Amino acid sequence: MNNKTALSVFTFQNHPVRTSIIDDEIWFVVSDACKVLDIINVSQAVDRLDQDGVCTTEVIDSMGRKQNATIANEPNLYRLIFQSRKPDAKAFQDWVYKEVLPSIRKTGEYSTQSSQLAIQQFAQSRDLEKIIKDLRKEMRDIKQLITPLEKQPVSRQELKERVIEAIRDMQEDYPDGLNCTEIKEGYPWFSQRNHSTDLIWHIINKLVEQGLIERNTIRRQIMPHHFREELRYRLPKGD
Questions:
Q1: Nearest to 89 by CA among 14, 53, 38, 18
Q2: DSSP characters for 204-234?
Q3: pTM over 0.85
Q4: Residue 146 gets which letter from DSSP?
Q5: Among 81, 127, 182, 217, which one has the highest count of C-beta atoms within 10 angstroms of its own C-beta?
Q6: pLDDT tier at 225, thresholds 50, 70, 90
């Protein structure tokens, strides 16, 4: 699909980010977002997006020439953000959500039926805790959908980083900490790979020795006067 649309320009940390409204939906110029996120291979990043939310539009470059630019819708922008390892990626996501989208909505140019329905459902629901938990899981699933499974062996260092990432992303849903099985089955990066629970347990204990995660022993009552101790793991407070 090729469109010719008017562009609005927002600036994030001196980087211009061009946006456009197509059929009442906001779209972002992919190359602008990739520059912000330090994603060098734009074509590869586009290949990982939902192609139903990708198209091209005619733009004017800095030299006044007409060019075709690839643009992506809002869900695909978040997929781009998840591809980035830049520390400022979260700040960019917050900027889009808290500044760009409200600014566009304020002009009355952005108001999709889906977003209105989501707001109504959210307002009518009383089970906010479940909604938040489900959203966090959905975001974890999306993060893994845009990252193809790696064929080469995974290093121990990456396993350590993934364990810490899993605990950080899931610990709000598990205030007492997580066990090895919950990390393996609840975090898509592990559930999609054939890593054993024993390997995850070994990596976790190395992280405990290094002081990067904490071990938490809790007692659960399984029968009257009978308790079972469980080992759980969480990030140190302040991390």
A1: 38
A2: HHHHHHTTSSEEEEEEEEEETTEEEEEEEEE
A3: no
A4: T
A5: 81
A6: low
Q: What is the CA radius of gyration of the chain?
A: 22
Element containing residue 185 per DSSP (H, E) = helix 180-186
Examine the domain organization and report whether 28 and 102 are in the same domain: yes
Domain limits for position 103? 2-110
Q: Which residue has the higher pLDDT, 40 or 114?
A: 40
Which pairs count as long-range contacts for 57-65, CB under 8 Å and 24+ apart, including other chains? Answer: 57/2, 57/3, 57/4, 57/5, 57/7, 57/20, 57/22, 57/27, 58/2, 58/3, 58/4, 58/5, 59/7, 59/18, 59/29
pLDDT in tens, 43-101: 888 988 888 889 988 876 656 677 788 999 988 898 888 888 888 888 888 888 888 88
- Write the single-letter amino acid at 96: V
Length of the chain: 239
Q: Is the pLDDT of residue 187 over 50?
A: yes
Parallel, antiparallel or unpaired: strands 2-3 and 54-60: parallel
Q: Final residue of a domain: which of 94, 110, 126?
A: 110
| Other CB atoms within 10 Å distance of the CB of residue 234 | 19
Tokens of 40: 């060098």
As a whole number of angstroms, the distance between CA 31 and CA 29 comes to: 6
Considering its fold, how many domains does the chain have in total?
2
Pair 230, 218: CB distance under 8 Å: yes
